[in-house]
Amino acid sequence: MENERVLAIYDIRGKQEYIYRSRRIPEIVGASAIISDVFADYLYPAARTVRNRTADWGEDEAIYSYQTGQASQDKNPEAFSVEAFERRMAEGKYIGEVVYDGGGNFLMLYRDKETCIQVNRIFTRTLMQRTGTLKVLCTILENPDFSQYRQDNGKLYEMHRRNEATESVIYPVNSLPISQVEPLTSRPLSAKRWTAKADGREKMSLERAAKYDKYREKKKDEGELILDNIVTKRGEESLLAVIYIDGNNMGAKVQACLEGNTTYEECVTKLRMFSAGIQRDYVDERIEAINKVLDEKYKDQLSVKRRLIVSAGDEMTIICNARDALEVVRAYFKGLPQAGSSCAGIAIFHSHAPYADAYRLAEECCESGKRVMKEKKLRNACLLDFHYCQGAMGVSLEQIRQRELQGMPTGRPWMILARDKTKGFCFSKEIAESLDKLGCHSLELAEEMAKVLNKLGRSNVKGLLNTALNSPADLEMDLERINAHRTEPVDFTLGGKLDEEQKRRLLYDMVLVYDLWFQGKAD
Description:
By secondary structure, this protein is α+β, with helices and mostly antiparallel strands. It has helices at residues 15-19, 25-36, 38-52, 70-73, 82-91, 113-131, 149-166, 206-218, 250-258, 264-297, 325-334, 355-376, 397-405, 429-433, 443-453, 458-470, 472-484, 500-512, 514-518, and strands spanning 6-13, 63-64, 96-102, 105-110, 135-142, 191-194, 201-204, 239-247, 306-312, 315-321, 342-350, 381-388, 414-420, 424-426, 441-442. The strands form three sheets. Strands 8, 9, 10, 11, 12, 13, 14 and 15 form an eight-stranded mixed β-sheet that branches. Strands 2-3-4-1-5 form a five-stranded mixed β-sheet, with helices on both faces. A two-stranded antiparallel ribbon has the order 6-7. Helix 3 crosses helix 6 (113-131), helix 16 runs antiparallel to helix 17 and helix 16 (458-470) packs across helix 18. It is globular, with a radius of gyration of 26 Å.
């Protein structure tokens, strides 16, 4: 038995498609929770069933997890030990151990190949019966060398890439042609659940039923459930913002944390510490910071004015009032560690608009920030891009901007934070003034411009949107008109920090969200 150990990697396939197949937020939240808990809910019970065939340990776990011990309760991940693993396997209570769970990776060590196969048979069948279409791909490496983790990991991922290329894309179909099916997924209507839009129990597929069940189990942690309670005033300003935030350069950071280490004890322990730090720095503490900002703003409200949709690893999706979006992003970025880095995308939309479309645009805004970071080889910086959904939402962000901007280059994304060599992770004027090389602006420049705009009167400010879009000449004429009516002219170049084109792009971007984020706040 000692030479038959198996290292297995589990990969949940099509996560984004599974989560955002529906446009209903309860189903999206439920799908995210299903993916987050899929191993605890389905793999662990399958392992207990296999273990209890030969020795009845009852409901005791059959898979040892480093996340449930005393070290985990103290928020310090347990170090991996080959000796401890072998002892557990010899005792018979455990048939496997979680090597690493984080960043979308789930690695397991099984006591032997046959046990792994039996567990996966039950796991896959139960997953199909309970969730409908969620698929998990498993790849195994036999006889791992405990002195060469990085070598084994490389072999395993190479095998896994080949499995990905050859996996079946056909979903099981268990309906007759006469069955009722969902229009969106063509899955049979085989379950009934209560929904907000149904007078009674609504017929739905097994997949949707699983999402609603999980949503009801998890909804107590989301914050405000009714989106109309988050808007400023229903019927007057029903604007919401969906914020998508994702960490940068995580692959490189994982490799950096393993540098100089080779054995399983060294590498797995480092990975566990890294994963725990990511969860703490990018999710747990960020949610606390966001809640603190919103609690202080809405002291007389009973619930936090945000709705958490997804929070896993270095990724987070939140819905909040559109007026709070910039403060939420600032609160998220401000507490990141010095070596931390993320990009954020904000899509501002009306509460009755399809959330899934707004989310897609927020994700594309985030990707535009990541694209700039990659092109300019930026490190340890946080960028923000945003989009105000005023028209069609069914096309890409690039197509929308080509139509709306009429060829004018955008000044987005904005740099929110960057790491200064002497001051650490902070707002830095030196960095902000060098952004002309990047073709984007910084939040600090925007706040300086807000002080200028707040001297002009709202009608003058809102009029700059069209003149900035028309041409540089139209904008200059309008700015001269504004200054001509003032006893003390204002400097729209911010003391020479902006050239004519930069000024035009920044003014357009700011006026677009002036009422929401800047009006009167920078005086």
